[in-house]
Design a protein that fits this description.
This protein is mostly helical. Helix content is about 90%, strand content about 0%.
Length: about 50
Amino acid sequence: PPDDISAIYEAIKKLIDNPDLAKSLANNLLEKMSARTIEKMIRVTEDLYRH
């Protein structure tokens, strides 16, 4: 939760203590974001052609 400072601290500490986990999470996020960006661009382009 955003207002749970203790949980935020523990999550950040976990990433600092586990650099492989941090790298894996970052890579997964980048992969998901790039895929969604492409999907969104395609959808927007298709919508333009439909209207």
